[in-house]
Amino acid sequence: MSKTFLVAVSVLLFFSCKEQTKQNSRSVVGQTKQEEAKGTVSIPDSWINKRVKKAEERLSNSDAGKVIWAAMKAHGGLYRWYRNGALEMRFNYQPIDGSTQRDSYETVDSWSNKVVHFSVNDPEEKFGFNGEEAWLKTKDSLAFAYDTKFWALTPLYLMGHPFVEDGEGVNLQLLPDTTYKGKKNKVVKVTYDPGTGDAPDDYYILHFDADTYLLTATRYIVSYPEYFKDGGHNPEKFMEVGELVDVDGVLLPSELKTHWTVDGKPGEYITKIEITDLKFIKDVPANFFEIPEGAKKL
To answer: Which of 46, 128, 184, 271 could make an SS bond with 258 (beta carbons 3.0 to 4.6 A apart)?
Structure first.
């Protein structure tokens, strides 16, 4: 047997084992769901229809709301957003300056704002929000080197527009049209009632293509009180929306690029966000979003 043949076989076995390890690591979340399953979350169509109708009625009462409703339809429709089930994705937030990266697999129930994040290195390391309380379960204190309570639902509110504007406590204001990348854009500012979420002073300024009503960019601030104990917020950011991908009939971004805002336009490029492994799932176990045994409440 030649030495060349042995080397070739060794290389083949190495990459085969490496790929199998990769597949095994990605399937652990699914295995966990099966092991924990005690029935599944099921949202009746009647509930979804009622919520969609209520959102349409509310949004149709203002010019800003009409833009948001048109954008929801352009992105696949609010009914499909909820009917498709929970959203799974890998959300990889990468600051250009090399500061703390936030990279996790997550499953989010947008119907009731519940979420579980899993470490990309070890799915046993996880954190989440059960709709009322944030929690953390980890063996390694450095597994998530950032504020997991703040970050639990942040990815949804960075990539889930315009659908996340259907809830209570959301205020909409139509701003003057603008031009972005040579095209006319409709612009809607989103603010929140006091007591809405952990950072009600946050705002989002959403840019939509005036012809297609697809989201093109988001301007926003972070006012999380744990970061700004004396009030205030960080400077406004300008987040470009990259390629939209079709996920079971819903158009969602696969990439976001964040800049500092300069005169309403993107300035210095500061963060790259990659959104991969996007899919909807309907068979989430009923207890999947509950606080797991041994977790720390935050």
So the answer is: 271
Q: Using an 8 Å Cβ cutoff, are 163 and 72 in contact?
A: yes
**What residue has token string 């909409």?**
172
Distance CA 55, CA 60 (A): 8
CB 33 within 8 A of CB 288: yes
Model pLDDT, residue 142: 86
Amino acid at 125: E
Amino acid, single-letter form, for residue 197: G
Range in 62-66, 70-74, 143-147, 172-176 with the lowest mean pLDDT: 143-147
Query: 241 and 51 in contact (C-beta within 8 Å)?
Result: no
For 224, list phi and psi in degrees, rounded to 5: -50, 120
**Residue 239 is inside which H or E element, if any?**
strand 237-241
Q: At what angle do helices 45-59 and 63-74 cross, to 10 degrees?
A: 140
